[in-house]
Here is the input.
Amino acid sequence: MTTLLRPGLATRPEAPEARGEVSHAVRNRLLGGGPAQLPRAADLARCSPYEEDLQLALHLCYELHYRGFADVPDTLEWDPDVLRIRALLEHRFESALRHDCRRLPDVDEALAQLLVEPSEGTGVSRFLMSSGELWHLREYTALRSVHQLREADAHLWVVPRLRGRAKAAMAAVEYDEYGCGRAERMHSRLYADLMTDLGLDPSYGRYVDLAGAELLAASNLMSMFGLHRRLRGALVGHFAVLETTSPPAASRIAAAMRRTGAGPAAERYFDEHVEADAVHEQVVRREVVGGLLDDEPELAHDVAFGIAATGLVEDRLGSHVVGAWTRGESALRAPSYGGTSLLPAPSSSAGGDGGDT
Here is the structure.
C-alpha cells in the first residue's frame, strides 16, 4: 500500500530537551526513569505557569496522547504517576488563565469582538504582510508547525462530548479540516507542503526545541481544553476564535507569501484557509456555539473563558514574535543573530529565493 506521507512525517519525534528541573524530571520518567524521577508538588509550585519549564513539561505529557515520542512506551499515556503530575501542571496553568481572564463579557459580546478588525493592528500577520521577509515567514511557519502538523486533532476530541446541532456542525467543519476524505488535502498535509516550499523539514515535532514558552502555551491550551470533558465549552470557545480570526490573518499571510516568492504550496495553505474558514466561521457561531448553548446554557461562561484564554495566549505569542522581529532578532528559542533566522537556509529546490535575507 502506497503512503501519501513523505519520509519522516509518520515517525515519532525525539523527546525535546528539558528547560528546567520539572521538565527534566518528566522527560527522565518518559525515557525510562522510575516514578521517583517525577517532580514533587513543591517543585511545581515554584514553576511560573506561562514559562519554559512548566509549558515544556505539559507538552511532554500531552504528546503522549498524540503520536508520542521515540523510545517512550505507549503504556505511559495512562500511567497514573504521569497523569498525577499532568494534573498538577494543568492546575497551575488553568488557575493562571482563569485569574488573568476573570473579567469576561457574555458570549455574544465576546464573539462580536472577534469580528472587529482594528485599523491599527500590530499582530504577526500584519507585520508579515507589510514588511515580512522570507526568514520571518520561515520562522513563523516552523513555530506554528508544533501544532499545525496535527491540525484539528485536539478539536476532534470534543465531538463525542457534544450532541445535536453542535455535534453535527462540529463534525462537518472537522471533515473539511481532514480534507473531506482525501489524505492529500488534509490541512496538516497542506501545512507540511507549505513547510517544504519554504525549505523547512516537515517532520512531525522537528521544531519543538526552537519554540518558546509562548508557542507551547498556545499549543497546550487546545490540548488541555480538548482532553477534559468539563472544558468542552472552553474548547468550543477556542475553536470559535480560530475559525473567526483565521480568514483575515490568512489573507495577509498569503499576500506575504506571494510577495516573497515562497512557492505555490506555501500560498495554497493560506488561500485554503481564507476560503474555508470564512464558511466555517458562520457554522461555528450559529451551529456549534449556538447549538451547545441551546442544549447546555450553563456552559456560556466556559465558552467565554475559552475565547478570552485563547486571546490571551495568542496575544502573548504575537507580542513575543513581533517584538523580536522589530528588534531585528530571531523569534526562535536560541541566541539571536540580528536580521537572520536561526533556521538552516533552504536548499535551491525550495521555493523563494533559495536563502534567508
